[in-house]
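Sorry, can you check?
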Amino acid sequence: MSRPCLHVIGAGLAGSEAAWQAARRGVAVVLHEMRPARQTQVHQTDGFAELVCSNSLRSDDASASAVGLLHEEMRRAGSVIMAAADRARVPAGGALAVDRAAFSAAVEEALAGLPNLCVERGEVAGLPPEDWEHVIIASGPLTSPALSEALRALTGKALAFFDAIAPIVYKDSIDFSTAWLQSRYDKGSGSDYINCPLSREQYYDFIDALLAAEKTRFRDWERDTPYFEGCLPVEVMAERGRDTLAFGPMKPVGLTNPHRAGRPFAVVQLRQDNALGTLYNMVGFQTKMTHGEQGRVFRRIPGLEQARFARLGGLHRNTFINSPRLLDATCRLKAQPRLRFAGQITGVEGYVESAAIGLLAGRFAAAEMSGEAAVLPPPTTALGSLLGHITGGAEAETFQPMNINFGLFPPLAGRVKKRERKAARCARALDDLADWLAAQ
């Protein structure tokens, strides 16, 4: 490309969204993806926007959920990630879950249709060259060692945390004389999850096996790395108290066992993971157990005695920068404004949140390259509250990854009844979003 172009490093959710937003505004974009030349610890393909942990983008309720509101705001802003998710949707009650392969293919197909976007495969090993005047670094939590070291030298010590992955089970290996299909409170189609019930005795036997199982050993340099509270390994939750799981991912509420009268003491839920309905992932069962122990322990769950696993769980180290200290209001690095950051590396947590910052970074870069002033989304919106948190709203000294939540939004004006506050915040956000979109 002969005219000035935007270089986007990383074709994950944030990088793909940033590239899409900028290219759709007439900017020439080069999207850099190191896979398959260099793989990561957890990616299995070289596809764009590959989902490596859960296949769920969480609640899709735009009237009562902060993440559901973020979904809707991104849809209205022309998000390629949300369009692909809607296209690849699989049953998940009130949540938005996708077929991983179809989702990745839809993102890649959309980007391939942009004439002013080209893809370069290969690692950006270090800081981008000086003649790259406009860059978005969306390399994700698994940034390559060479680029990580370069960023560490430029920004100071990077922060890090451990993230865990849940196992995926073949549906035809589940015993439906014990398990049954039902969503909590019959949401969605009413049968979007597979439920495996445990009695009190079975639950505590399972907890004992979980706690006694051999776990992944950390290397010396990883020992002080914390976990992210929103995605704890199931063993870590169990270590906090033997009843923790029964009141967490294994709570039995909103379910009726057709095989036996009475409510089970605990339930393991599995959510559809692909469009064919052949694969189901274990909800909330991220784990750091060794692969051999996972098969032994998880087959103690009623209904999973003969389970075959398409993928076992795992643990990986994620890296992010101290964004409140390092970034300006439009995600530019204060020390080197030609560099913008987007996605999980900025310290947002979650697929949708990562893509949302990519959406904003792409729009900001396009505005700058067109000689226009970037217009920040209102802080009353999910997009604006998330951006404000990472670019100054959070305490730099204690900064940790954050999901979107209503605690990031400014208070409502006047007195609003507690049961009406979520709906009121969502309605205000969408009204203010409309004004922001019109201004651009």
Q: What stands out?
A: Residues 163 and 316 are 5 Å apart (CA to CA). The chain has a mean pLDDT of 90. The chain has two domains: 5-158+321-439, 164-317. The chain is about 30% helix and 15% strand.
